[in-house]
């Protein structure tokens, strides 16, 4: 994107000053989404239109790497755990990826790379046996070797019946597909599957490995509550744990005995900032070296001599989910498909993309990300903004407006609470826009802001919400069982909204049960049509990856092991070669 697209520099400046005086949330809330968008367009915000190749700055090593200094990454959400078996959020996965190496990792384009594994898994012709050989020189931070026993133990925690009480979000899929895990020798492990499972390698072989000698004495329930979930003692990654000041920052230090050689960076700090806008502000002041940039600041940060902005496509999206769990009070409202569809028709999602995401996102026409080989741009039905249709659908379904203007049916008012994590300005403002849009069709929706760890707990275990709004990130394989398969409604699973469909389960199972990509693509087209029709958890939009990187930081965005589409979260092998030009 070019700032020259703006009608005038004066208009740009005034609009930025306006946003500094008033939070965007208040702006949208006071004026309404449509009026807010019209207002900022009138103020000259055409410059905010995203260009696909804008901001593709690189910070590759142009100097000789130097050892020393500390790097501060910032974001607005704190982590929840440092245990790879329990993790269910991207922030936790980021820290875990620096502490615990996995068998495989990814290139930015999604291709798999061996990490602890010596080479790619040797796979049987029917895709039911994966033999993995470990590298010779891999070791834990206490100097002892990482062995196949550690790998087996880690996966046993997530699928073996004796560890049923371990609250792992991977359990549903691993129990369904893994028959056995066998240690052939200290360096060789064999995964035998019950049946063909096409995405096994990308979906299941990128979890951090735990040391059996440290965790093996714990009972299953004790794994969930161990102090080592928040202060790990023996790890294997680029960095070692030093301290977690909850709600403030996590501090890691260089692992001097790392098997690939020590990092150039002395100390890595993950800092929790008040909100998404604060990331850009602290990049400006030098308090942060690296972090995700709020779309509202994208243009104003471009051209700053102290850091560069890099953008790339990502399989990340923002969605909201209706609680359809049988015991949930909200299930009486959302069990009606007409209600779910009408609520989506009532939303001006393009207006949200334009005014809240500053056009650095795209309206979702499917559950599949546009970067996927299985994406269907023609998935149906389509949900263009159509308030009249939303009203007609609710009328036909028997939801009548009362004297207070709120619809009701059978004694149930169409009123509910929507929750998201505080600090994410896009999500906060999206709730306000949704509240305004739904009020126009006789629906009373009340926003509620909670911490990110509280939101994760709501989705995966507590499940007392009415509606939640959150972001999610797909892997490079198009399997979407994590959200849509009924088995993942189990405690710890991501299908916390209780969507269960025998037809959907069959589509998903058939799609992973063949290695034929053309057949898989056909099945995923069916999946997308079904999800678009049933809308158990509507996807609002797909976002872009937008990061700011200080000029003093080198080596983050260049090469096969770099920040990119599939390497935002989880394992970050590129951090090993990242260095600071000033060693501060």
Concise description?
By secondary structure, this protein is an alpha+beta fold. It has 20 helices and 22 strands.
Number of strands: 22
Q: List low-pLDDT spans.
A: 1-61
Mean pLDDT: 89
The end-to-end distance, rounded to whole angstroms, is: 33 Å
The amount of helix comes to 25-40%
| Classification by helices and strands | alpha+beta
The shape is: globular
Main beta-sheet strand count, sense and barrel state:
7 strands, mixed
Strand content: 15-25%
The radius of gyration is: 24 Å
The number of helices is 20
What is the topological layout?
Elements: H1 9-21, H2 24-31, H3 33-42, E1 70-75, H4 90-99, E2 104-106, E3 112-114, E4 122-123, E5 129-133, H5 148-159, H6 171-177, E6 178-185, E7 188-193, H7 200-204, H8 212-215, H9 220-225, E8 239-245, E9 249-254, E10 267-272, H10 276-285, E11 290-292, H11 298-301, E12 307-322, H12 331-334, H13 337-345, H14 349-355, E13 361-363, H15 387-396, E14 400-401, E15 407-409, E16 412-413, E17 415-421, H16 425-439, E18 444-450, H17 452-462, E19 467-473, H18 481-484, H19 502-512, H20 517-534, E20 539-550, E21 553-554, E22 579-580
Parallel strand pairs: 1-10, 17-18, 17-19
Antiparallel strand pairs: 2-3, 4-5, 5-7, 6-7, 8-9, 9-10, 11-20, 12-19, 12-20, 13-20, 14-15, 15-16, 21-22
Describe this structure in words.
Helices cover 30% and strands 20% of the residues. 52% of the residues are buried. Residues 1-61 have low confidence and may be disordered. Helix 2 crosses helix 3 (33-42) and helix 13 packs antiparallel against helix 15 (387-396). Strands 11, 12, 13, 17, 18, 19 and 20 form a seven-stranded mixed beta sheet that branches. A four-stranded mixed beta sheet has the order 1-10-9-8.
């Amino acid at each position: 994107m070019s700032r020259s697209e703006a009608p005038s520099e004066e208009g740009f400046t005034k609009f930025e000053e306006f946003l500094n005086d008033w939070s965007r949330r208040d702006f949208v809330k006071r004026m309404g989404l449509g009026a807010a968008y019209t207002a900022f367009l009138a103020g000259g915000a055409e410059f905010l239109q995203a260009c696909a190749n804008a901001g593709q700055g690189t910070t590759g090593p142009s100097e000789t790497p130097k050892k020393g200094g500390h790097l501060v990454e910032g974001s607005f959400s704190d982590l929840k755990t440092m245990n790879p078996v329990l993790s269910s959020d991207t922030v936790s996965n980021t820290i875990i990826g620096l502490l615990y190496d996995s068998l495989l990792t990814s290139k930015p384009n999604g291709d798999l790379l061996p990490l602890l594994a010596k080479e790619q898994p040797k796979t049987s012709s029917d895709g039911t046996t994966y033999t993995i050989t470990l590298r010779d020189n891999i070791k834990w931070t206490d100097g002892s070797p990482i062995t196949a026993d550690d790998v087996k133990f880690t996966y046993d925690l997530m699928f073996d019946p004796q560890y049923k009480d371990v609250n792992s979000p991977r359990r549903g899929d691993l129990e369904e597909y893994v028959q056995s895990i066998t240690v052939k020798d200290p360096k060789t492990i064999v995964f035998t599957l019950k049946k063909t499972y096409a995405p096994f390698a990308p979906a299941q072989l990128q979890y951090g490995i735990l040391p059996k000698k440290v965790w093996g004495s714990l009972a299953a329930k004790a794994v969930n509550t161990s102090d080592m979930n928040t202060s790990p003692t023996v790890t294997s990654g680029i960095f070692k744990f030093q301290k977690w000041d909850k709600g403030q920052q996590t501090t890691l230090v260089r692992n001097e005995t790392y098997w690939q050689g020590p990092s150039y960076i002395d100390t890595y700090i993950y800092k929790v900032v008040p909100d998404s806008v604060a990331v850009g502000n602290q990049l400006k002041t030098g308090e942060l070296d690296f972090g995700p940039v709020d779309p509202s600041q994208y243009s104003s940060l471009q051209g700053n001599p102290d850091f560069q902005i890099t953008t790339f496509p990502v399989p990340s999206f923002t969605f909201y989910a209706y609680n359809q769990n049988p015991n949930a009070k909200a299930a009486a409202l959302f069990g009606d498909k007409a209600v779910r569809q009408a609520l989506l028709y009532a939303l001006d999602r393009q207006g949200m993309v334009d005014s809240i995401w500053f056009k650095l996102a795209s309206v979702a026409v499917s559950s599949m990300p546009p970067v996927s080989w299985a994406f269907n741009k023609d998935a149906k039905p389509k949900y263009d903004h159509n308030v009249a249709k939303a009203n007609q659908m609710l009328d036909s379904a028997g939801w009548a407006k009362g004297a207070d203007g709120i619809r009701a049916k059978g004694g149930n008012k169409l009123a509910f609470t929507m929750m998201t994590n505080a600090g994410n300005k896009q999500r906060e403002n999206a709730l306000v826009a949704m509240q305004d849009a739904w009020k126009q069709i006789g629906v009373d929706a009340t926003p509620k802001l909670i911490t990110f760890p509280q939101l994760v707990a709501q989705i995966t275990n507590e499940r007392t919400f009415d509606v939640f709004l959150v972001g999610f990130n797909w892997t490079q394989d198009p399997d979407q069982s994590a959200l849509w398969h009924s088995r993942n409604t189990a405690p710890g699973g991501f299908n916390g909204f209780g969507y269960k469909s025998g037809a959907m389960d069959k589509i998903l199972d058939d799609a992973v049960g063949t290695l034929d990509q053309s057949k898989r693509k056909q099945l995923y087209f069916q999946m997308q049509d079904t999800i678009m029709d049933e809308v158990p958890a509507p996807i609002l939009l797909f976002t872009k990856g937008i990061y700011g990187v200080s000029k003093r930081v080198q080596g983050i965005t260049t090469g096969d092991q770099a920040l990119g589409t599939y390497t935002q979260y989880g394992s970050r092998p590129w951090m090993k070669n990242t260095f600071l030009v000033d060693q501060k």
